[in-house]
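User: Structure please.
Assistant: Input sequence and predicted structure:
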Amino acid sequence: MDRAAYEVGQATVLVETAAAIKVKVGEYEYWVPKSVLHDDSEVWGARDGRNEGKLIVQAWWAEKEGLEG
């Protein structure tokens, strides 16, 4: 599995489910599956208290979602 990272930006968790987090990055909101969060991400979810920080996801997912420029 490719574990290359892509930094989406400074994010705030708005909503959390068992499988995903809804984050706000700038003026945009994204649903991000927890399974694509990179180990280096500072944002994981509201339940563990890590609800603000750099959102880092796996690069393949960022590319699939059109986040990579």
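The two ends are 22 Å apart (CA to CA).
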